[in-house]
Amino acid sequence: MSTSFFAQKHYIVTGGGSGIGLALVLKLAVASAIVHAIDLKASAPPEFEALFETVHYHGSIDVSSRSSVTELYKAITAISPRIDGIVNSAGICPGGDGYIQSDETFQRTMAVNVIGTWNITTAFLEMVNKESPDVGRSGTPPSGTRASIVNIGSSASLCAWPTLTAYTASKHAVLGLTRSWSLDWAHKGIRVNLVAPGGTDTPLARAQLSDLEGRGEALTAGLAMIPLGRLGRPEEQADTIMFLLGDGSSYITGQVIPVNGGFP
Asked: GO: which molecular function terms (predicted)?
């Protein structure tokens, strides 16, 4: 994969203020891409201070709110009329409820992880559809990739975790969105894939591992099952996302890429 591919291309990364999203924004910036980093945190991380020409930080954004996302896109398109890729990295994994999670926990988890992914992506797909409204599935196949969408799932997209019913349901749903969009939008040159991180050393994972009541114990046991014997690094997840955004993955769509240290 050539990093020159990304030069002056424009990307949206949700959850771009920490963890995997932050690692990805930094890699894209190094590759001379223009990046819109979206996060619920009001203030940009200090790493962005020297990147003001390439990284545009949009803070205090609730991706689960359609009205907020609509206003967000107005701000983004004023800077970047064409978007070349989307990465849906915003997500939460609340716990502490035990085996019967509350309605509030379920609704909040689905709102951020699923509806947030839905809002950001469908707003973009509406833009793409306006570019070529007459291009249908029976027309000429696309000559190349118009844009690449990468959704961030989880090992919980593929298997169940004890005491994480809401999170597991949400990440299964994100996988469903990925596969459906990849089918529905291939004729427009849109590729859609999902990265399924295993345990990764992020603020979210550290919070999970420090929770020793039920959920934390399950995750600690899961860590012992990783053949490589450690948590992944955010940068390792970002490398896989970069591959899926880039030209080296031009014939890959509708796929799940586990990045999990060999977790079964």
From this structure: oxidoreductase activity, acting on the CH-OH group of donors, NAD or NADP as acceptor
